[in-house]
């Protein structure tokens, strides 16, 4: 087990998803790379009414996976806040903070999701699962298929066939 100190800032730079993210801890073990991040936002926007909130409700942690690094799967613990919505007209009283790099309820960062979808669209799902496993991304072919089915089909602006 090797603990990465604050001196080795290059590893920490990998997890600076935005200016509110503070990398608290990183740890490399033989089987994985772990990181703990604090999100220190000064305010958050209610997803329902779009009002800005300055009041914390509570703090909670999410465990998510990120892009693998040098053959190590990456597991991140993200500590972030729930916020009060003080808009009296809003039905939402407490909301979870939204991040532009991690979708609500997702267990994978957006950049990892993007890679998985790219591999899934480039291969059949069985092959995509094998490729992901080689890259140290833990995902089943069913989960890849679910992502492909969820994707909106791109509608071409013009018909690719010549009109008669
Ligand atoms: Zn609101």
Number of strands: 8
Reading the helices and strands in chain order gives EHEEEEEEEHHH
Mean pLDDT: 90
What ligand molecules are bound, each kind once? zinc ion
Distance between the termini: 69 Å
> Which percent range describes the beta-strand content?
25-35%
InterPro entries: Transposase_Znf (IPR029261)
Domain Transposase IS204/IS1001/IS1096/IS1165 zinc-finger: 44-87
Protein name: Transposase family protein
Provide structural commentary.
It is a single chain. The chain has 164 residues and is α+β, with helices and mostly antiparallel strands. The chain folds into two domains: 2-102, no CATH class; 108-153. 23% of the residues lie in helices and 32% in strands. The protein has four helices and eight strands, in the order βαβββββββααα. It has helices at residues 9-13, 110-122, 125-134, 141-150; strands at 2-3, 21-29, 32-39, 44-45, 52-53, 56-69, 72-84, 94-96. Strands 1, 2, 3, 6, 7 and 8 form a six-stranded mixed β-sheet that branches. The chain has a two-stranded antiparallel sheet with strand order 4-5. A hairpin with a 2-residue loop joins β6 (56-69) and β7 (72-84). α2 (110-122) crosses α3. The relative contact order is 0.13. Residues 44-87 form the Transposase IS204/IS1001/IS1096/IS1165 zinc-finger domain. This is Transposase family protein. Pfam families: Zn_ribbon_ISL3 (PF14690).
